[in-house]
Amino acid sequence: MKKKLVVLTGAGISAESGIATFRDSNGLWEGHNVMDVASPEGWRKDRALVLDFYNQRRKQALGVKPNEAHLELARLEKYFDVTIITQNVDNLHEKAGSNNVIHLHGELFKSQSTMDPSLVYKMDGWELNIGDKCERGSQLRPFIVWFGEMVPMIEPAIDIVSKADIFAVIGTSLLVYPAAGLIQYAPKSCIKFIIDVKTPDLGNIHKLYPIEGLASVGTKKMSQEIIEKFI
Ligand code: APR
Question: Where is the active site (predicted)?
């Protein structure tokens, strides 16, 4: 039976595809205060601004390609039972060919009813505007988990992490909870990696094997190691 490889990814894995990370830009996100464009308060204050912000993100994402880190994780499905838990809202893991992706913070190319959160729609184009409605007649919003909102996918993510044989963390500052807390659910016996240009300080609570450098290089290095060790 294939071993279970669980990978938690963050903005750093998409950096080499040309998508800006969050915390490398002084609290501004593409020129905006994060709370203006990614919080329920921001949405209440100025829906047009929020919709436009995500329209621009989608437009930008259309031309973006997965990089070697995404592609390597997809290739690993040949050897391992791979689940990716991503904080990213881009669809680069899917574009790279990964089949099991849990999106903790939503998906850029989906919209959601403001009245009934269970109504989620795949978007064909990049634009979502004032007046775009769900089947029950309420305004659609981006399908993004904003600051201060619940993270419904954390439960299945915890379940998967708790069964991992190998657990890797790639390109995340581990500053945002509950995603950052997932590490603690990895079994003691499972081998753990952290790949980042600048390994976040985890204190001495979590023993992860650090691979410093670009996600593309680090992921390949990890890939070689786990294939040699576990196959
Ligand atoms: N390769 C590897 N790691 C990189 C690279 C790269 N090319 N470039 C940057 N990094 C690392 C940084 O060192 C940092 O540790 O990626 C990490 C990015 O951290 P953040 O910008 O904080 O992104 P992330 O951890 O994904 O943010 C979590 O916060 O704003 C919210 O909801 C948003 O999902 C996001 C969450």
Answer: 105
Q: What is the pLDDT of residue 197?
A: 95
User: Which residues of the chain fall below pLDDT 70?
Assistant: 25-28, 203-207
- Looking at the annotation, which residues are catalytic? 105
In this predicted complex, what is the ipTM?
0.98
Give the separation between CA 221 and CA 216, rounded to whole angstroms.
9
Are 41 and 154 found together in one domain? Answer: no
Residue 27: per-residue pLDDT: 54
57 and 154 co-located in one domain: no
Does 228 lie in the same domain as 164?
A: yes
169 in the same domain as 75: yes
DSSP per position, 77-116: GGTSEEEEEE---S-HHHHHT-S-EEETTEEEEEEEESS-
From the alpha carbon of 214, which atom of ligand 1 is closest?
A: 1
Interval between CA 97 and ligand 1 midpoint (Å): 22
pLDDT of residue 206: 60
Instruction: Kindly report the protein residue whose alpha carbon is nearest to atom 8 of ligand 1.
Output: 12
pTM for this entry = 0.96
Q: What is the pLDDT of residue 22?
A: 79
Cβ atoms of residues 218 and 211 within 8 Å: yes
Ligand 1 centroid from CA 162, angstroms: 23
Q: What tokens appear for 50 in the block?
A: 């929020």
